[in-house]
Design goal:
- This protein is α/β, with parallel strands linked by helices.
- The chain folds into two domains: 2-25 and 235-433, UDP-n-acetylglucosamine1-carboxyvinyl-transferase, Chain (Alpha-beta prism); 27-233, UDP-n-acetylglucosamine1-carboxyvinyl-transferase, Chain (Alpha-beta prism).
- Helix content is 29%, strand content 27%.
- It contains twelve helices and 24 strands.
- The chain has helices spanning 27-39, 53-64, 99-109, 130-138, 172-182, 200-207, 238-250, 269-277, 322-330, 351-361, 392-404, 424-433, and strands at residues 2-4, 8-11, 18-20, 41-47, 68-71, 75-81, 93-94, 115-119, 142-146, 150-156, 164-166, 189-192, 211-215, 218-222, 231-233, 255-262, 280-289, 292-300, 309-310, 334-338, 365-369, 372-377, 385-387, 409-412.
- The strands form six sheets. It has a four-stranded mixed β-sheet. It has a four-stranded mixed β-sheet with strand order 3-16-18-17. Strands 5-6-4-15 form a four-stranded mixed β-sheet, covered by helices on one side.
- The radius of gyration is 21 Å and the shape is globular.
């Protein structure tokens, strides 16, 4: 496996994955740690932060908003300015490719006493933002957008009021946006979810002293409580782990160990589905760290997977893992049906379309549906020239397909992997090249 000029990643087949794999910090939690520690009073020490381009975009935005940050290879110290201490930036805030940055930060900026503009790269500027614009406007925010729904977003800070808002679609980013706006609102803010989505924001708000209560599908937040600076230890990213877990499940004889992975119940749908398909996954040494559940994972490749139906409330708990699940399904016996995942249409790329097109080039039997796909497992993929659609999760899923395929695979536009997991090609290479040793 090697990267060449013209942004192409060359993947050769592997026999198995082995060893202890040290993963980057959780991307979702890293975003929230940077934003909430900036809004707290005092210095927060963040260890294990993820350093992909998306999280660096959040870090740079907070710096432009007047937050002082000291960092080295292992930790970041954020000098929080409190809820009222942000200052108007001298320039636009560039969110890069990060929808998380734009959506969550908009909730904070809607309540400030200044004007800001949020933009991003060409991909982000095509992603609709009406799902945050509507509730923020109900709270009293003043927001302008291109064609009323697309970035750039221009936000003039306003006095906000608490609302009760029912999410039309389960979305952790939209929920987080509303809750962070609620920190500044007059009165209680309530968010009602149609099904569970990842709850890192609620957990971190509670850990840092906010008045937040979860009642079933209702989350209630009352303003008036200053956030407290804390030491934040970021778990290893389960969405990054998913690619290695998926590859190990496919390649018979694999045996990998992943220490310190976040197993937040709203993020473990991927593990549940793989276990239903017959994967051999051990969850070891469970513990709590900074209000988040973590564990060590061991995966053995037994080559005994069965296709299943994946739908309903579990979809929000594995939405980011569907690209690698689609690859796993190609090697499972029988049919795998994924439905209720229309959210994939508005990610960095149209992931349903991208997976259907690119995996078909490798010989997959895959049928595109409006809100999902049907995959008939053949147990065989062949190397091919494929394209990432400039989507990091598509690129990494295709890389795993490549190590499990027959013949070389070429992935075009592969540098998008740097958005969330710059170390991915090197770690994958070492896991394939060596036996059981520290990677």
């Amino acid at each position: 496996m090697e990267s060449h000029k013209n942004n192409v990643l060359y993947i050769k087949p592997g026999h198995r994955l082995e060893g202890t794999i040290d993963l980057p910090g959780d991307k979702s939690i890293s975003h929230r740690a940077l934003i909430l520690s900036s809004l707290a009073r005092g210095n927060s020490l963040i260890e294990g932060i993820q350093r992909g381009k998306d999280c660096l975009a959040t870090l740079n935005c907070m710096k432009k908003l007047g937050v002082s940050v000291r960092e080295d290879d292992k930790r970041v110290i954020v000098q929080g300015v409190g809820l009222e201490g942000l200052r108007e930036p001298d320039d636009i805030l560039d969110c890069g490719n990060s929808g998380t940055t734009m959506r969550i930060l908009s909730g904070v900026l809607a309540a400030q006493k200044f004007y800001t503009v949020l933009t991003g790269d060409s991909s982000l500027r095509k992603r609709p933002m009406d799902r945050i614009i509507k509730p923020l406007q109900e709270m009293g925010a003043t927001i302008w957008a291109r064609k009323e729904i697309f970035p750039p977003l221009s936000i003039k800070g306003s006095s906000l009021r608490g609302i009760s808002y029912t999410l039309p679609v389960a979305s952790a980013q939209v929920k987080s946006c509303i809750l962070l706006a609620g920190l500044y609102a007059q009165g209680k803010t309530t968010v009602i979810e149609p099904s569970l989505s990842r709850d890192h924001t609620e957990r971190m708000l509670d850990y840092m002293g906010a008045k937040i209560v979860k009642k079933g599908m209702r989350i209630e937040l009352r303003p008036g409580q200053e956030l407290r600076a804390k030491k934040l230890l970021i778990p290893k990213d389960i969405s990054a782990a998913a690619f290695f877990i998926g590859g190990a499940c496919i390649l018979e004889g694999s045996d990998i160990f992943l220490p310190g992975v976040g197993i937040n119940p709203t993020r473990t749908g991927f593990l549940q589905v793989l276990q239903q398909m017959g994967a051999q996954i051990e969850v070891l040494n469970k513990r709590i760290m900074c209000n988040e559940e973590i564990a060590d994972l061991r995966i053995k490749g037994e080559n005994s997977l069965e296709g299943i139906k994946i739908s309903g409330d579990i979809i929000p708990c594995l939405i980011d893992e569907i690209p690698i699940l689609a690859v796993v399904a190609c090697f499972a016996r029988g049919k795998t049906l994924i439905e209720g995942a229309g959210e994939l249409r508005v990610k960095e790329a149209d992931r349903i379309r991208a997976l259907s097109v690119e995996l078909s080039k490798m010989g997959a039997k895959i049928e595109e549906r409006k809100d999902g796909m049907v995959i008939r497992g053949t147990g065989i993929l062949k190397g091919a020239e494929v394209d990432s659609w400039e989507d990091h999760r598509i690129a990494m899923a295709l890389a795993i397909a490549g190590i499990c395929a027959r013949g070389e695979t070429k992935i075009r536009h592969a540098d998008c992997i740097n958005i969330s997991f710059p170390q991915f090609p090197d770690i994958l290479q070492r896991a394939l090249a060596f036996g059981k040793k520290e990677l």
